[in-house]
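Quiz preparation item.
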């Protein structure tokens, strides 16, 4: 009876977890007339933008999905939940290669007990939650993970390098083109003009696009997020100063690219160095929340509150990185965290476009509301447009160009800025990065000669490199999107398997024959392909078991004598969830490379992009092993090619 009562009130218990979940609205709703009416009723539109009071853009702070109802497609299937028996049997097969024989036997007993006791009632609650959820059973838990995580945003935001623009060779020209394209893309989101996202012939959920341009607002315990697609301004960071750029005329029309270039060049010509206020966004979330409160409450004039509001409501942040960077290793450092003395010139609560002194550019992505494949759609658009639009010389005209934001910084805030900067520099010095350009062969060779999945081939190379370096297999996370389901985000393919471990052992044994190696290799690749297909169908182990764990945590808070099931305190669960290899493929050919930092202190962050004749890989590690791992990976790729797997079939 107690458990039934608990299940009945589940929606009330989950309210904090589900508060960011979008309300499902009718599929089609136009917002253009609303925006037009708002513009016409504003008596300040005829005044130059930097002379009038700052008014936040419409709908920016709304958590309702109504302005973006056209992105909702309720005809898509909901994210399925596999039967508990299937999930637990797959879990045992997943953790087998991570445990000793004795540990595995104990885990088998724990799983059996869980399967016949608490697991059943928890799974029933999960099914009830799914039935009552308008979107997905995991969405509330997933939002809670991102918004209640107290880590620093710089430690979780991935980054991506864009292809160079051969015609726009100054930072102002390159940035102006990217800014224009971004405003046009935001308009396409609002006006329902984006092409339908597809995976081959399967339509994908597009609701995530409403969060492409967002701000993560720090609060104690739980952050919030706001949408910015309606914004008519951006924020620019240069020399640790913050600027507002409003590139629209009084009719609401976007200025031409050459005029925006002039504005941005004016910012670049401003040589004054600012207070470095943006570095506060690199702090842990609770510390940043406290600093933000201090910023507002310590300034009775309201100047700091106004400046923060301008940042919060901007479409995005444009960062001018005042260095020339050429190699992928140099660019990896700049895009991950900035380099000394420019690392304070970032704001991680928003989407950031970073442009270097030699006009190389990339994006640092706030991960709270979107995933990389959603970002890729925007990046594809802005890169394609840079080749399609003409380059017009910069014009010299007199008009308000930009506003330099003001801050009233007292001694406690100066101390907070110093502490945040010192923490950031210390963290940077612990992080080892390396960018590997492997040009010996690529996807075409693997498909034609070896005849296996290129992703499976590369994942097995990662397994072999890790095994040779550490003499064991490590839990591996390969991110997969599940946007074929309504409000789907990502799921996890556990790339390490019994078959992959066997392959690594055979490859490392001095007496193994070529035939034995090839047989083990093909079995490992075949198993990996099965795991990928299962993950795409939401038959993974991570998401449903993570949901059950959160339901068990809710029981602990409700019932004083309830104890967490042994399943979630077992060594197998913690070992599987400790991702020693966190991996993700780069989802677009318009990018040069991308990456992220490790999620565990002993692990590696691996971002990789496959090309017809090459692999481009970024490696990060906190133990100084990035270069060493890159060397092991290069050797593994060549050894796998030299097995004789690539002999042409004549």
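Solution:
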């Amino acid at each position: 009876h107690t458990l039934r009562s608990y299940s009945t009130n589940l929606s009330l218990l989950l309210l904090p977890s589900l508060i960011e979940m979008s309300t499902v609205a009718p599929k089609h709703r136009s917002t253009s007339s609303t925006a037009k009416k708002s513009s016409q009723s504003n008596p300040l539109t005829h005044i130059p933008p930097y002379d009038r009071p700052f008014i936040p853009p419409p709908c920016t702070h709304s958590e309702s999905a109504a302005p973006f109802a056209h992105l909702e497609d309720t005809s898509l299937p909901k994210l399925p939940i596999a039967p508990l028996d299937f999930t637990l049997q797959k879990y045992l097969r997943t953790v087998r290669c991570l445990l000793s024989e004795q540990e595995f036997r104990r885990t088998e007993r724990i799983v059996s007990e869980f399967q016949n006791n608490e697991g059943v009632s928890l799974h029933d609650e999960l099914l009830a939650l799914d039935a009552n959820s308008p979107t997905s059973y995991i969405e509330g838990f997933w939002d809670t993970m991102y918004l209640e995580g107290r880590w620093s945003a710089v430690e979780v935001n991935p980054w991506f390098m864009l292809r160079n623009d051969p015609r726009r060779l100054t930072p102002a020209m390159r940035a102006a083109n990217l800014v224009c394209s971004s405003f046009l893309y935001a308009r396409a989101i609002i006006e329902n003009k984006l092409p339908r996202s597809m995976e081959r012939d399967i339509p994908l959920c597009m609701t995530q696009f409403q969060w492409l341009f967002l701000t993560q607002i720090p609060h104690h315990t739980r952050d919030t997020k706001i949408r910015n697609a309606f914004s008519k301004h951006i924020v620019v960071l240069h020399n640790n100063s913050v600027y507002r750029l409003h590139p629209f005329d009084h009719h609401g029309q976007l200025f031409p690219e050459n005029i925006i270039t002039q504005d941005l060049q004016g910012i670049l010509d401003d040589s004054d160095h600012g207070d470095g206020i943006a570095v506060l966004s690199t702090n842990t979330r609770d510390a940043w929340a406290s600093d933000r409160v201090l910023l507002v409450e310590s300034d009775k004039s309201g100047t700091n509150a106004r400046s923060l509001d301008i940042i919060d409501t901007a479409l995005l942040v444009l960062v001018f990185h005042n260095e020339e960077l050429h190699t992928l290793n140099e660019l990896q450092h700049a895009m991950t965290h900035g380099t000394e003395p420019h690392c304070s010139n970032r704001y991680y609560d928003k989407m950031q476009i970073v442009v270097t002194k030699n006009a190389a550019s990339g994006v640092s992505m706030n991960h709270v509301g979107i995933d990389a494949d959603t970002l890729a759609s925007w990046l594809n658009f802005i890169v394609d447009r840079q080749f399609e639009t003409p380059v017009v010389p910069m014009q010299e005209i007199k008009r308000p160009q930009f506003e330099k934001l003001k801050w009233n910084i007292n001694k406690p805030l100066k101390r907070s800025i110093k502490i945040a900067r010192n923490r950031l520099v210390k963290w940077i010095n612990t992080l080892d990065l390396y960018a590997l350009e492997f040009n010996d062969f690529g996807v075409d060779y693997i498909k034609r000669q070896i005849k296996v999945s290129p992703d499976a081939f590369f994942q097995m190379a990662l397994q072999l490199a890790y095994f040779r370096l550490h003499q064991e297999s490590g839990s591996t996370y390969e991110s997969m999107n599940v946007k074929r389901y309504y409000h789907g985000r990502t799921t996890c393919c556990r790339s390490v398997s019994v078959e992959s471990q066997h392959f690594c052992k055979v490859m490392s044994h001095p007496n193994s024959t070529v035939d034995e190696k090839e047989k083990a290799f093909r079995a490992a690749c075949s198993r990996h392909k099965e795991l990928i297909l299962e993950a795409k169908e939401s038959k993974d182990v991570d998401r449903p078991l993570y949901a059950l764990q959160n339901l068990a945590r809710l029981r602990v808070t409700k019932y004083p004598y309830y104890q967490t099931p042994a399943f979630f305190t077992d060594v197998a669960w913690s070992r599987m969830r400790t991702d020693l290899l966190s991996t993700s493929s780069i989802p677009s050919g318009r990018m040069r490379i991308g990456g992220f930092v490790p999620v565990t202190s002993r692990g590696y962050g691996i971002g990789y992009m496959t090309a017809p004749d090459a692999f481009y890989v970024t490696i990060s590690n906190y133990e100084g092993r990035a270069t060493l791992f890159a060397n092991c990976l290069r050797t593994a790729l060549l050894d796998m090619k030299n097995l004789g797997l690539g002999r042409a079939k004549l």
